[in-house]
Specification:
Elements lengths: L7 E4 L8 E4 L3 H51 L47 H11 L35 H18 L3 H13 L1 H4 L3 H17 L3 H21 L4 H15 L4 H21 L4 H15 L3 H10 L8 H14 L5 H13 L3 H12 L16
Antiparallel strand pairs: 1-2
Length: 400
Amino acid sequence: GFLWVVPRVPAPVEAGDGAVYVPLLTHDEQVDVLERLDFVLRNISELRKEVEELRSSLQHLAAEIIAEVRSHLEETQKVTRRRRFPFPRERSDSTGSSSIYFTASSGTANTDDGESEGGYTTANAESDYDRESERESEEGEDEVSCETVRTARRDSLDLVNEDEAPLILDSSLEEGLGQLLQQADRLHNGDEQEKREGFQLLLNNKLAYADQKDFLWRLARAHSDMCEITEDADEKRSYASDGKEEIEIALQKWDQSAECHQWYAILCGQLSEHESIQKRIQTGYVFKEHIDKAIELKPEDPQSYYLLGRWCYQVSHLGWLEKKTASALFEAPPTATVQDALQNFLRVEELSPGFSKAGRVYIAKCYRDLGNNSAAVLWMNLASELPANTKEVAVSVSTH
């Protein structure tokens, strides 16, 4: 509680009488002022927490930049011409096992996949780099560079010379790709274990199909699946970061692919959950931009309207502090209404009835917010008729 001293002023009455004091504010007005003051103080406390979070992220920025620059310098110093071997090569100067090892875990550093061959980690990466640095001045000498990156790694595969890799799939590879994509889609729609199997399946085939659009966006989708089902916060961030890198490569080649824009938006949203409030707000703009592009390219895809509906609903429920922060950081803060969200969720039902259980729940929420309780009850009942797992992507849409 606060000790509130009500100011009083002399209010002269009849002549000759002394001045009496009356309060400037009535009791109800005092209560209203106290409530407003309490509201302001709570928001100041929340803002202080956000400022501390921002300060912390800035402190890490310098270290991240240094790490990225060092990584880039190491990459550029490596031998650019690499020979592929179908089997692990014995190394007489290595300590421990001489085989190439691949793991299924995800790392955390940025890589240039234009120079790396898909991004794989070896057990002897540091010693490889030391030996290559010593011999980089010897022209004409063939080297094998096993780059250390932090993208997800894969089990051993037969590797081919990159100069001989075909740009166009022959009939057998194309047929194999079709079967692979069907299997990946089936596993993606399964339970957690099946999603893990789908992720590993795509990693195991990355070398063969890394230049195929439909393969790459599914690989990014698999990273998103792993981000959702993983409990550890660091692993979640790693999967989201790696998936975002994969889909960025795809977008550079196929910027007219609705699926590439869609999954780029989703992975940006997942990654922003582990970043500062400023980055989350910034990501909200990126998310909306790429979902709009996906709808432009493929206007009959219910998934994009579901994601846009989620974005609109969250923006319509931004609190005072979030709105003020967005206004301070950007000239035009994001705007959307509950009605905007409702129209997008209804569009999902129009395109594919029963596409999303969560979408029907959001329709009910929108009607409740708009004061139409009977419609809200109807859509909650319709949502209860659907199975727990429907077709929409399970993802947090970041706007703040």
